[in-house]
Design goal:
GO terms for molecular function: GDP-Man:Man(1)GlcNAc(2)-PP-Dol alpha-1,3-mannosyltransferase activity; GDP-Man:Man(2)GlcNAc(2)-PP-Dol alpha-1,6-mannosyltransferase activity. This is Alpha-1,3/1,6-mannosyltransferase ALG2. By secondary structure, the chain is an alpha/beta fold. The protein has two domains: 195 residues, Rossmann fold, CATH 3.40.50.2000; 190 residues, Rossmann fold. Helix 2 links the parallel strand 2 and strand 3. Helix 13 packs across helix 16. The relative contact order is 0.11.
Length: 400
Amino acid sequence: MENREHVVFLHETLAKKTMDKYLLNIALAYHDMGHKVTLMVSHGNPKEMIEEFEFLDKIDVQYCGSWIPRTFLGLCHRTMSTLKAAWMALRIVLSPPTQKPTLIVTDVHTIALFIVHSLSKYKIFHYENFRRLRAKEELCQHTCFMPTFHHAKFMKMANEVLVENSLFAEIFSRSFPALKKPLVVYRSIDIGSWDGPEVDIKRIIPDLEDNFVMLLTINKFKASSNFKLVMDVFEVLLSSIGDTQRSRNYHLVVAGTCKSPQEDLQYDQVVNSAKTRKCGSQMTILKTLPTIHEKSLIQNASVVICCARNIQADLYLKVLCLGKSIVATNRGIVTKIIKNRLTGILVEPEPTCMASEIARLIASPYVSTFMSEIAKDCFKELYSFKSLCRQLKNVSFRKK
């Protein structure tokens, strides 16, 4: 194939984490553009760990530095990560593959940027994932990352820095004011298992009424997800309907994932809160959420509610992809993705205001249809897998 370039990714561990899926998403985009893609990792079994994508026949996965342990007696994790990054960089510079790479994409320690930049002329992209920040509950758009001297110095050696949404871009610009603005590349969600067939909604929520009106909120079970506010909104909405018979058709689904003891504890608190409410019998709390179930829930929801204070964008992109109505608080990353009154409704985080907007959407199918069409067009143009390929094509192989 003409102009078939070789793109090599340097990545430490292939696992079921957002950062791994993001990098794999970009790798698949380069493959879709017709380029050869090699993924160098130190640990991980791709056959067992990433089931959302079919990529083993598209991407060459090679192991490098697997002899370096992850820790030394449970300590020195950062030191070992630095050694792995240095080993990978030296391997690609001193013993390059038969087809030399045109582009190196890394998300490992920035020592790899220094080595590759100093010993070769390869073009380098670095994905800044803010690994130490993203797990913190208080992470928000006002957060500032304090890099070390060497981290900041080595970061200058990347031709482009990639971040996964516009709020991470703001954090990056505050944290590295001397560097140019990063390239915002959203993870496309319209590939892999997301394209699979839907599941009958009553297999997921068996107690739905025949003429159900389902409201949905999805997020991790953390305090920042603000599930309590969502349940308050649902209570206010039911009380405003008045007609008891009609209100019985309404059902709230709170769905998320529990992957840690803290999230299990938060799940228990949400369940206990639901039990104390009069409308508790009209709520369903789900603690596991396979991708295909998530798609089915969103597709069957009348309105998606989001009161989260976090800065993850995936939920909003999935709602746009399916063209569903969304009512969200005007805080965080949602304000960068949802266009108020066009692709969704943004309101103050107050139960009465949110319940009022939800009631209007449910009562106005023409408005919902109008917003649905605009949302789908917006997703197709800005956030789809094809738009990701176009964006990467425009920046990847230009001359320095």
